Every structure is written in C-alpha cells, then in structure tokens.
Structure to design on (303 residues):
C-alpha cells in the first residue's frame, strides 16, 4: 500500500521526543490521541468525525482517571478492613472488591480500545489528506484501491491485540461510505458511517464482546442508576468540552436505566449518534467558536 504518509506516523504521536520510546502510560497516550484527532479536524473541518472523536477520546481519558481513582480508593478501604478469615474479609469488603475489580477491568479495556481505534482510523484520514496532488474524487478512488491491501503492512505497524481478536487494516464498507459522504458534502452521513466503523467494526470486537467487560459495565450501570455503592460509579456521558465535568448544553447522556447495556451495539449507537447530532448542531450555531476553542485546547494538551 503506497501512501504519501509513512505507516509509522501514528506511532510518532505516541513517542516521547526526549527518549525516543513509545509512551507506556495510558493517560499520557490518551492525551496524545486526543491531540491527534483535534489536529485532523483543525486541519480539515470536513473531518467532523475526528472533531467528535477528540471529545470522545477525551471522555475516555476521564474514564481512565476515574477508574484509577476508584482502584486507589477501594484498595485503601480494603486495607483498613483485613478481617480475621476469608468470609469476614469478603463480607466487609464486598462492595469495594467489586468496584475495584470492575475498575481494573475498565481501565485496561479503555486503554486498549482507545489505542487501537486510533491506530486503525487516524492513518485513514491522513492517507486521504496527504494525497494533495489529487482531487477529492481521485483521493477517494485511491483510498478504495489501497484499502484492501492495507493488511500487507501489518508487520510494520504497532498492533498489540491478541491473535484472532482483530487484524490490523481489515477493509470495511463503512470506511468508503464515510469518505464518499465526506467528498459529496454529506458530512452528517460521513460521521454516521465512520462512527459505525468505530463502534461496531473496531470497539465491539476489542472491548464490548468481552464478558468481563460486560459484567463491569453492568455493575457500573447499576451503581450509576441506584447510587450503590455510593461514589463508585462512572457517569456514561459525552461532554463536548475540553474537560471532564458536565457542561450545560454540551453533554449527551447514555440512557439511565438499570437494564441498559452499553455493550449492546444498537443501544450504544443511539448514544453515539445523539452526540454526533448535538456536535453537528453546535457547529452550525452560535456555539461554534466555543467548540473550536475547546478542540484547540485539546490539541494543545489542555484537556
């Protein structure tokens, strides 16, 4: 697959300039991924999926921070109540053990999904962007021809998934649908197609099909709705700002029902598409400048 962009460009975003080594801290990796998505949108405003992804990836970073705090807090609570035997220990620490184990699972899964979605979809945007000597139609045709050959470079790129989970560079119709809509000026449809690729073709396989992740998400959903155990849940939301806190008029929420299943692709896509619709609306109105400032802040690492 020949491209004007080098196949290791995504890795450069994740490399410490001082040491020349890949960053190994998921929170720092997340900040760099956020910045890369913001860069795509700031470079070409038609890459509206990337603008939304800058906020969504920032929200993943909020989830990582929440999970890390919960792991530390539950560990501290458990150390205060050792118990005389295993039964007493379990009875004293049941909530904390559940919350801690769920948070450890989600920390690992959020980091894994955040990294590999970036490794899949950032190069697609750069491949399209850097064919600067071609018209949009020629770029689209070039992308279509090369997409099926993308797996030929899998041995050259960073890809840490277990064998059989998801191969690098799997060609998907959603990719061509997304970029075709972009070229034809159907920006909302472009976002919808790329969001389907992101959520169903990539993250569903990496994160949401895992039974342990489903159990952790179910526990979090119950805690979010009921408030039990108090303070241990993470809110399922997407805030279109550079920060984690809820912003009036800028936040989309997942359904707050006990039986809701974030791991179900149809339920999750309703949430994602609602956020995409809100983002598009903001870009058409008076809030556009505020949104641009937030994405610029994310680009500069201020999230």
């Amino acid at each position: 697959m020949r491209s004007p962009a080098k196949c290791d460009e995504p890795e450069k975003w994740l490399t410490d300039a001082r040491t020349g080594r890949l960053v190994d801290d998921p929170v720092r990796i997340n900040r760099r991924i956020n910045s890369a998505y913001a860069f795509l949108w700031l470079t070409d405003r038609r890459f509206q999926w990337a603008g939304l992804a800058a906020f969504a990836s920032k929200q993943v970073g909020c989830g990582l921070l929440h999970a890390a705090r919960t792991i530390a807090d539950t560990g501290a609570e458990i150390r205060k109540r050792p118990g005389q035997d295993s039964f007493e220990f379990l009875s004293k620490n049941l909530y904390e053990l559940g919350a801690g184990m769920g948070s450890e699972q989600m920390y690992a899964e959020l980091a894994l999904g955040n990294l590999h979605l970036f490794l899949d979809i950032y190069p697609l945007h750069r491949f399209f962007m850097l064919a600067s000597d071609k018209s949009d139609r020629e770029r689209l045709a070039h992308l279509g021809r090369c997409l099926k050959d993308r797996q030929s470079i899998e041995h050259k790129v960073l890809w840490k998934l277990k064998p059989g989970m998801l191969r690098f560079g799997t060609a998907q119709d959603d990719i061509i649908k997304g970029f075709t809509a972009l070229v034809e000026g159907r920006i909302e449809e472009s976002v919808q197609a790329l969001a389907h690729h992101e959520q169903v073709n990539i993250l569903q396989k990496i994160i949401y099909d895992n039974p342990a992740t489903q159990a952790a998400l179910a526990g979090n959903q119950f805690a979010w709705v009921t408030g039990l155990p108090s303070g241990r849940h993470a809110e399922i939301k997407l805030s279109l700002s550079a920060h984690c806190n809820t912003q009036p008029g800028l936040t989309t929420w997942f359904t707050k029902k006990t039986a809701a299943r974030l791991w179900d692709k149809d339920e999750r896509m309703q949430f994602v598409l609602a956020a995409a619709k809100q983002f598009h609306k903001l870009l058409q109105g008076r809030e556009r400048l505020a949104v641009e400032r937030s994405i610029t802040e994310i680009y500069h690492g201020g999230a």
Observations:
- The CA atoms of residues 39 and 46 lie 12 Å apart.
